[in-house]
């Protein structure tokens, strides 16, 4: 019985060698990273609410807003508010 999938042993060996090389480079990079090189939770924030062990923060933007916040013409009931849409569009 003939297999419909054709395998090229040289291509498989090359792909395995490339993958092994990338895996080795990745492990060397991870081994070189030290705790002092990693910064966690550095975004400026303001505490908004606290209850027991739960805290809600408002994170300050670190970049200027390039695009306006998307606005929906649908309310929670699914009704379209066309007069509002026309007013904002013009």
Description:
- The protein has 90 residues and is of the alpha+beta class.
- The protein has a domain at 9-34.
- It has two helices and two strands; from the N terminus they run αββα.
- The chain has a two-stranded antiparallel ribbon.
- The radius of gyration is 27 Å and the shape is flat.
- It starts with 8 loop residues before the first helix and ends with a helix.
- Residues 85-90 have low confidence and may be disordered.
Low-confidence stretches: 85-90
Strand order of the largest sheet: 1-2
Beta-strand proportion:
5-15%
Radius of gyration: 27 Å
The secondary structure category is alpha+beta
Order of helices and strands: HEEH
The N- and C-terminal alpha carbons lie at a distance of 71 Å
Shape, per Cα inertia axes: flat
Largest sheet: 2 strands, antiparallel
Q: How many helices does DSSP assign?
A: 2
Mean pLDDT score: 82
The proportion of residues forming helix, as a percent range, comes to 25-40%
Query: What is the strand tally?
Result: 2
């Amino acid at each position: 019985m003939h297999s419909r999938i054709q395998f090229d042993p040289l291509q498989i060996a090359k792909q395995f060698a490339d993958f092994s090389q990338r895996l080795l480079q990745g492990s060397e990079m991870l081994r070189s990273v030290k705790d002092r090189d990693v910064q966690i939770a550095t975004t400026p924030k303001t505490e908004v609410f606290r209850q027991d062990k739960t805290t809600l923060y408002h994170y300050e933007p670190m970049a200027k807003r390039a695009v306006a916040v998307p606005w929906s013409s649908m309310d929670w009931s699914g009704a379209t508010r066309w007069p509002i849409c026309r007013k904002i569009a013009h």
